[in-house]
Specification:
With 196 residues, the chain is of the alpha+beta class. It contains four helices and six strands, in the order ααααββββββ. It has helices spanning 7-12, 18-31, 41-113, 117-137; strands at residues 140-142, 156-161, 172-177, 180-182, 185-188, 191-195. The chain has a three-stranded antiparallel sheet with strand order 1-4-5. The protein is elongated, with a radius of gyration of 46 Å.
Length: 196
Amino acid sequence: MVKKKSHEERHEEPMPGKETLDNQANTESDASGQPEPEGDPEATVTRQAEEELLGRLTEMQDRYLRLSAEFDNYRKRTLREKIELSQSGGESVIKKLLPIIDDFDRAMNSMRTTDDCNAVKAGLELIYSKINDFLKQAGVREIEAVNEEFNGDMHEAVTTIPVDDEKMRGKVIDVTQKGYTLNDKVIRFPKVVVGE
């Protein structure tokens, strides 16, 4: 005959798997985001670390936004300065050309009123030399091409003509338009006639 256990005896015996169920319940309550007991020092440290990381993240985001705004302002300012420089950069060149234009005005007036061709010719030569001096001061140099070996990097051939002299084959015979360099950079290629 099976002896019935008293209520007290049944209570003392653990149910099979009860500890496992209790552990799962504790784990689930921790994972569900329920606040941990106040007395747990590990939870306090974790909260403090989270708050510190959030503070640092907020500070970094603020620094990023400020840096981004500063860079945007810098970019706009430099763009504005470049536009102003390009607009006013030609001002100094124009100011230097104005005296030459004044000379041209005087030459035009004297051409209309005088019969002395030599005086007009001398005035034009003076103006021409002033223009050349101005260009030299600005760093502009004429590319010498006549009797030079044809160079595709420095010359632009417009035509070729047959030559009797063998020494002139492949050389520049004539220049139809002068070429110039500005500080050793070609700004206009000379148009040349090449012997063949």
